[in-house]
Amino acid sequence: MRSTIYLVSTLIVAGLSLTAWANITESETSYPSLQPLIDAAKPGDTITPPPGTYAGPVTIEKAIILDGQNKVTIDAGGKGSVIYLDTNGASIRNLHLTHSGESHNDIDAGVQVRGHFNVIKDNIIDNTLFGIDLQQSENNVVRRNTISSQHRDLGMRGDGIRLWYSFNNKITDNIIDNSRDLVVWYSADNIISRNKITHGRYSLHFMYSRYNLVEDNEFFNNAVGIFLMYSDGMIIRNNQITHASGPTGIGIGFKETSNLTVENNKIMYCATGLYLDVSPYEPDTTNHLKNNLVAFNAIGVRFLNDWQGNIFEANQFKGNITQIAVSGAGSAKRNVWKDNFWDDYEGFDLDHNGIGDTPHEIYSYADRLWMDVPGAQFFKGSPILEAIDFLERLAPFSEPKLMLMDPHPKMLAHDTP
Fold first, then answer.
1. Domain span at residue 39?
2. What are phi and psi of 154, to 5 degrees?
3. Residue 323 lies in a domain
4. What would the pLDDT profile of 280-309 be if each residue is shown by its tens digit?
5. Whole-angstrom Cα distance, residue 256 to residue 231?
6. Looking at 56-189, which runs of residues are DSSP E strands?
């Protein structure tokens, strides 16, 4: 039977007086250590320490519930991780975890998880290098935590949440600000849902990770929204990604990634909305991008090269300075474009069926210059390049190249997802 253990009763059980316990557990930060309380607990116990600040690091190796009731701080004093959770079936909740060490090699974090079926929820984690780190850990729940990193340059911060070779975890409803990435490496079948991530590098970065679900998240004011590398079978839906507007800002990017479903996302105010690099990669596979709003970006969709295998269906392309860009003098016409709304479509709908009477075609004119000559990108949008582009469209010096054709463009934008 689970029991609730309070500090005084636990010390009595452990055979320690309050004075003796305080004397032998005083840390360099002058806070009493929480470790004796953890060590005295039995599997299944609920530990609710009295309000106050306690010294870490703390190691938990048994299935207990540690509940701070939003009145307890654990301060690691700048050494190691605040909590090492090396067990199955434990719960850490309602705590303030702070002041981890600074070692990237040791992954000093608010919570290091090395087990299965644990719950880490409703904690405030700040002034730590990494937030929550899961390694070879399965079926854990990381929910409603508020996480921020130590004050460092962006690349030197730790990741807000990190999964490494971890499966079937649920990462939901967390708020991460001023950390580096939410990173998922060599991990599969995880759910990442309803998180809000701001002022970081990669909101969400996948490497060699398959079959993960990403939905209902908000990512804004990060260098990159979502980037997938060598990560197949992913579902990305109902996310809002905005203001990835730096020199390399990307809403959603794919590198050598196949069998994707990307639907009902809002991708707005980014340097590049969608970025595709040799994707899909596996032979005879398809990436399906449907019902996304790609709006007010410098470039709506950018292909690194002339590639194929992507289906763009029923998306809205609105207010982008350049709808489509393809490097290497290529085109995007080997992909499937159907039933999309293009705000620069110039055709008519004489039969009033909501579909343009003629296909929407995008050609490359002088605007090809900045796509293929890196130095010319500085002049993108400048009056001189715009004037050259206007003159070439008025009287082309050579046959313009067809970039893509949507046979049945929609005349009206549907309700935004």
1. 1-200
2. -55, -50
3. no
4. 999 999 999 999 999 999 999 999 989 999
5. 8
6. 58-60, 65-75, 83-85, 91-98, 109-113, 119-121, 124-128, 130-135, 141-143, 146-149, 161-164, 170-172, 175-177, 182-185
